[in-house]
């Protein structure tokens, strides 16, 4: 059975050596002293490694079962969920007035990575609740906040988001679920939603569904969509639970992965709903959930890559196969361990450099969210808006690839369910699809985010990279990082210039290159993160750190990324500059 070790040391390194969180003037960051964050991370690491991770294979093999309208979760999930709830983990970064601990989002993200890596399907129950609570916090009335948030923050009640219908996924303007206004100010919702994660289960007393629907007589298309709170059980004025609402689970989806999460077809049959936010402004409210969810999904891609890498590394050190071509490394044994072979090293280094670079990237992104929300920094808000499709799309595409690479390290055993490697690949696969398929993320990046506010935010990113390179070009040991980063950044700028020059007269010229641009951008982001980590580790070595081996390993891993992974930016640029013709040359009938 696979194992998981929480990467608490590396998380601490990124938070303090690289991001210097406790030195920041962002409100709440002064509390993030190393001893404090260490205590939180170690406790979360213990829970995830010892309690939640062992249930990952259980959830995969047992799955969920629908019996007479009730969903039964896998063995051990209820007890583990109770422990998570009792520890206050779901409300770590939620407001104190609703029972949360009001910790910065960056710490919640660090903890969240460990939960997702340990058991993605299980963690989705609280993750969806967090997103739904955030939407109510941002758009709900005071009465709605007081009614729902305390019990959602504690996960006494859980939450969902209901968007997709059988005939419409990305194009939500086609939805048919309707919400009929009632004399008492409520609405009656009728329709069907599919692919609803955590849609029905018995681990919580109530489930609060956030549902997109159309009010009759409203504008056509997406402009006529509103968002509603639809509880599984109606809530009385005193906060106690009343009658069962008209919402039921009609079916459990049979999925490739995340078997431990109840992915439901939800039927709304005159269910009572309460408008959240303004009429016909549902997408605005839902995007509070969607943007948070997209960062969280990017984290899922990273997390599955990490746990897969950990197990591939252990196997490569233990499995004896063949001899090192330069001479036996295990002369007393029948063969050398797999890790001596250069191609196995390549696979492991691809994974290690992605996981550690991606970890820094997502925590840096989380720090931007804190700056935007806690310090009301509009520039940070614009920058994380630009980065969101990159975090979601790049980290999940690459994260899935890394689970496949980890599986490859095992050879034939990676294909056998007993070793557990296929679960990481199957679970990671969904992250490329939900919360906006990655092709849509790329279109959003190129079609909307680049030009947002007159291109201010992408120019700010270019300036960020340029300033870092300028500040560190003469630092001993940094040439291995600064020069490749400058070259990659120039490729990114050239791609942006190509879109500016060609996109208006031929939109397909830009859209055909959008996926390559997202990946090009992602590689530059990880190049910047590795450069920042290199600077941090060089300083630690210069200061006489007692853990020199850790920092030397960081530098070697970073050099690998800069020389073996970052040059992909040139390939992506070449593809972008080939334009739309190679992509659009065939008529539909010719396929």
How would you characterize the overall build of this protein?
This protein has helices at residues 8-18, 34-52, 55-62, 77-86, 105-118, 120-139, 142-153, 282-318, 342-374, 378-409, 421-429, 438-449, 456-472, 479-502, 507-511, 514-542, 548-565, 568-577, 581-584, and strands at residues 65-67, 70-72, 157-162, 178-181, 187-197, 206-214, 225-231, 233-235, 241-244, 247-252, 263-275. It is globular and about 80 Å long. Strands 3, 4, 5, 6, 7, 10 and 11 form a seven-stranded mixed beta sheet that branches. The longest helix has 37 residues, at 282-318. The chain is an alpha+beta fold. α14 packs parallel to α17 (548-565).
Q: Can you count the beta strands?
A: 11
The coarse overall form would be globular
Number of distinct helices: 19
- Tell me the span between the first and last alpha carbons: 44 Å
For the sheet with most strands, the description reads:
7 strands, mixed
């Amino acid at each position: 059975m696979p194992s998981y070790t929480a990467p608490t040391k590396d998380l601490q390194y990124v938070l303090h050596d690289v991001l210097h969180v406790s030195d920041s003037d962002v409100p709440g960051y002064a509390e993030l002293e190393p001893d404090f964050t260490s205590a939180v991370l170690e406790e979360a690491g213990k829970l995830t490694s010892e309690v939640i991770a062992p249930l990952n294979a259980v959830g995969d093999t047992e799955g969920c079962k629908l019996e007479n309208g009730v969903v039964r979760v896998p063995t051990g999930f209820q007890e583990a969920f109770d422990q998570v709830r009792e520890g206050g983990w779901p409300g770590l970064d939620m407001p104190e007035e609703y029972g949360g601990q009001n910790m910065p989002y960056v710490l919640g993200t660090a903890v969240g990575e460990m939960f997702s890596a340990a058991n993605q399907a299980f963690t989705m129950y609280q993750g969806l609740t967090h997103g739904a609570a955030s939407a109510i916090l941002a758009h709900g009335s005071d009465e709605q906040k007081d009614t729902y948030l305390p019990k959602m923050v504690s996960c006494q009640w859980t939450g969902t988001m209901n968007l997709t219908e059988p005939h419409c996924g990305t194009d939500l303007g086609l939805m048919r679920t309707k919400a009929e206004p009632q004399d008492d100010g409520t609405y009656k919702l009728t329709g069907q939603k599919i692919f609803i994660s955590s849609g029905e289960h018995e681990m919580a007393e109530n489930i609060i569904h956030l549902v997109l629907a159309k009010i009759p007589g409203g504008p056509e298309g997406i402009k006529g969509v509103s968002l509603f709170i639809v509880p599984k059980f109606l809530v009385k004025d005193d906060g106690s639970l009343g009658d069962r609402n008209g919402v039921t689970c009609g079916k459990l989806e049979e999925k490739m992965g995340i078997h431990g999460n109840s992915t439901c077809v939800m039927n709304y049959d005159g269910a009572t709903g309460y408008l959240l936010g303004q009429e016909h402004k549902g997408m605005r409210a839902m995007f509070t959930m969607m943007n948070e969810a997209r960062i969280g999904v990017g984290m899922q891609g990273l997390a599955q890559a990490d746990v897969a890498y950990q197990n591939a590394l252990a196997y490569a050190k233990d499995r004896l196969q063949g001899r090192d071509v330069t001479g036996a490394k295990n002369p007393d044994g029948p063969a050398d361990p797999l890790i001596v072979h250069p191609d196995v090293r390549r696979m492991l280094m691809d994974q290690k450099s992605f996981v550690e670079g991606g970890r820094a990237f997502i925590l840096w992104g989380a720090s931007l969210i804190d700056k935007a929300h806690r310090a009301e920094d509009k520039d940070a808000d614009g920058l994380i808006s630009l980065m969101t499709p990159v975090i979601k799309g790049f980290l999940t595409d690459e994260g899935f690839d890394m689970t496949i690479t980890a599986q490859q390290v095992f050879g034939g055993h990676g294909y056998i369910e007993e070793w557990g490697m296929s679960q990481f690949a199957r679970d990671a696969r969904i992250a490329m699809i939900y919360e906006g398929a990655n092709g849509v993320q790329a279109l959003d990046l190129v079609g909307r985010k680049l030009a947002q506010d007159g291109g201010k935010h992408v120019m700010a990113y270019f300036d960020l990279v340029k300033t870092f390179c300028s500040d560190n070009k003469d630092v001993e040991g940094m040439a291995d990082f600064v020069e490749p980063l400058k070259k990659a950044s120039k490729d990114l700028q050239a791609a942006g210039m190509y879109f500016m020059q060609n996109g208006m007269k031929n939109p397909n010229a830009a859209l055909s290159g959008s996926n390559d641009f997202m990946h090009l951008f992602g590689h530059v982001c990880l190049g910047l993160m590795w450069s920042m980590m290199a600077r941090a580790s060089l300083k630690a070595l210069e200061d006489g750190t007692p853990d020199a081996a850790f920092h030397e390993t960081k530098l070697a891993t970073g050099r690998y990324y800069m020389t073996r992974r970052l040059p992909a930016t040139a390939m992506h640029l070449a593809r972008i500059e080939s334009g739309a013709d190679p992509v659009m040359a065939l008529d539909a009938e010719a396929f």
